[in-house]
Amino acid sequence: MGEHSLNKKQGITSLRIKRILITIVLILISIMCLFWFVLLFVNTTRSNGELGRGFTLIPSTHLITNIKNLYEGTIPILNGMFNSFVVAGLSALLCVYFSTMTAYAVQMYTFKGKKAIITFILAIMMIPTQVTALGFINLVSALGLENNFIPLIIPSIAAPVTFFYMKQYMASNLPPSLIEAARIDGAGELKTFNLIALPLMKPAIAVQAIFTFVASWNNYFVPSLILHDDTKKTLPVLIAQLRSADWLKFDMGQVYAMISFSIFPVIIVYLILSKNIVGGTTAGGVKE
Amino acid sequence: MKTGKTNVVSKYNRWGYIFLIPFFVVFLIFQLIPLVNTIYNSFFENYMSGLRRVGPNFVGFQNYSALFKGGDLLQYFGNTMIMWIMGFVPQILLALLLGAWFANPSLRLKGQRFFKTVIYLPNLIMASAFAMLFFTLFADGGPINNMLIQAGMIAQPIKFMSNVWTVRSLVAFMNFLIWFGNTTILLLAGMLGIPADLYEAAEVDGASPTTIFFKITLPLLKPIFIYVIITSLIGGLQMFDVPQILTNGSGDPMRSSMTLIMYLNKHLYSKNYGMAGALSVLLLIITGILSLIVFKFTAKKEAK
To answer: Is B128 inside any structural domain?
Structure first.
């Protein structure tokens, strides 16, 4: 046996040790990420009395009771979930449809001022929503749209980030020749967009629909400023209401159930579609 | 013949404008008008005194000077920055480390997809619900204190919510947890974009993995690095949901965790529109400058 192969063997062993150590660190980091949600789930299954008695990671049997109590309690949880679903669902739908349309406009047609328009959309991308919030609530109250979902849904039509993602995807996945072929066949422009371009954009649409849905589902700042009626509130606004109530009087099992309702739907959807989501971040994020 | 063709093409191209209409109409109504209205309001005295509305009277830059007087603004800016840095430094360090591991082909790590899925997960969690969860978990009689007492690590419960640095640490930790996976994925994409022959050449020259990391990976990552830092800083300036829910909007103890947007939110709720306007414009200017830096660097990258 030569010295060389001995060295190589040592190298492989040290690499194996390194790999094991790194895997242990990764497992610890995963625990740091998941611990809170495991604890949330366990606590949702425990009664108020059990919760007062101390810490454990063993689930109890009161999951259904807690959900039932929450449902029958003073917080309009079912309303909140329904409102959140309507707002997030419609926002996602409108956002992806019109962002694709806007991207299609600058990608498939040549017209004067196109470059300026793209630069303009890039420039407005960084304006934070909070900065225009004052004018926004003035506008909403002037239009009499307080306690209404319209000001939460319609603005998602103009979404610069989604637009850029769609434009990027279109550049590499939607050949203009295809659109020209459709034109020769005599299809109208709107029809071509709806029947030829949209189906080919499905993967990008799916990714962005999820991102928009989640962002809208989690959105707290703007809804808290314009939704005042209990029955109109979305989940984050209800959470804030729960926080500002005298929470010590609450049945803690219900509090955990309420948090679960806000967090777990997104986690479940994410775990089903995680492959698309993790890949989708970078595709839109870094390029340009 | 030729003119006929251009006519047909320009007939199609008219649709470019038509397809842009929804975006620009919505932008005009829901973003531009509010933006102009916000700037306009910043020059007017306009607030509620009890049930009576004072103003609107034009006062020039008075709202701006009032904003800087008294030191509240500086304190809230300081709070925001402290909590951002406390979350960002561990976040970028861990993201670099994880990115380097995931990008290293010779390690052949098993279960990469699982780990990426797990570390990205907190990014999708509703921040307000997450903060509410931490508030209940870290309450004086909450599960974390119970756990520490049961483990014999402490005798008395820690009052997490009444100490300046525990509250700030909790906010920073939540922000760290929410964002480090996202940062890892971004840096990893950058690292995978570095040509493999650069690494091979360095290895042939006998460079150690540490040297390779500092002399090749880091310098080539600079554009993405700057992108991550500045976008995170812009996001940090907008910090709201987590400290708002955790401290119930008070920023307690002693307003030491009150952020700029929480301050803005307070003005909006009390209908103090002049001050809210001035604060918004200030934030817009800061964000604008930071964004310009991002664009400058990303434009440079494209030119290369």
So the answer is: yes
Give me the pLDDT at residue B3, please: 45
Q: What is the SS3 assignment for B71-133?
A: CHHHHHHHHHHHHHHHHHHHHHHHHHHHHHHHHCHHHCCCCHHHHHHHHHHHHHCCHHHHHHH
A134–B291: do the CB atoms touch at under 8 Å?
no
A1: helix, coil or strand? coil
Segments forming the whole domain that contains residue B23: 2-58
Residues B21 and B160 in one domain: no
The pLDDT value recorded for residue B213 is 83
Question: What is the per-residue pLDDT for B158?
Answer: 92
Closest CB to B129: pick one of A131, A259, A275: A259
Q: Over the stretch A36-47, which tens digit does the pLDDT of each residue have?
A: 999 999 999 999
Give the number of other Cβ atoms within 10 Å of residue A170's Cβ.
Answer: 21
Nearest to A134 among B17, B276, B295 (CB): B276
Q: How far apart are CA B235 and CA A128, in angstroms?
A: 9
Looking at the fold, whether B83 and B29 belong to one and the same domain comes out as no
Tens of pLDDT, residues A244-288: 887 667 788 889 999 999 999 999 988 887 777 676 655 544 333
Query: How many structural domains is chain B composed of?
Result: 2
Q: For chain B, give the percent of residues with pLDDT over 90.
A: 53
A-contacting residues of B 277-296, CB under 8 Å?
277, 280-281, 283-284, 287-288, 290-291, 294-295
**Cβ neighbours of A135 in B, within 8 Å:** 33-38, 41
Determine contact, residues B61/B273, Cβ cutoff 8 Å.
no
Q: Rounded distance, CA B146 to CA A51, Å?
A: 10
Q: Tell me: do B134 and B171 sit in the same domain.
A: yes
What's the DSSP call for residue B271? T
Ordered by start, the domain boundaries in chain A are 3-66, 75-244
Q: Which CATH code fits A75-244?
A: 1.10.3720.10
User: Phi/psi at A111 (nearest 5 deg)?
Assistant: -155, 165
Backbone angles phi, psi at A228, to 5 degrees: -110, -30
Given a contact cutoff of 8 angstroms between Cβ atoms, the answer to whether B222 and B193 are in contact is no
Q: In this structure, are B233 and B105 located in the same domain?
A: yes
Preceding amide of B56 cis, omega within 30 = yes
Reduced to 3 states (helix: H, G, I; strand: E, B; else coil), residue A47 is coil
For chain A, how are helix, strand and coil distributed in percent, rounded to 5?
80, 0, 20
- Whether residue B64 lies inside any domain: the answer is no
Write down which residue in B58, B77, B104 finishes a domain: B58
Residue A234 pLDDT: 96
Q: Which of B89, B93, B249 is nearest to B172 (CA)?
A: B89
Separation between Cα atoms, residue A78 and residue A72, nearest integer Å: 10
pLDDT tens track for B144-177: 999 999 898 999 999 999 999 999 999 999 999 9
Binned at pLDDT 50, 70 and 90, residue B239 comes out as very high
B149 and B246 fall within a common domain = yes
Taking residues B49-54, what's their average pLDDT? Answer: 77
Q: Which residue has the tokens 């604890």?
A: A39
Q: Looking at this predicted complex, what is its ipTM?
A: 0.88
Backbone angles phi, psi at A126, to 5 degrees: -90, 0
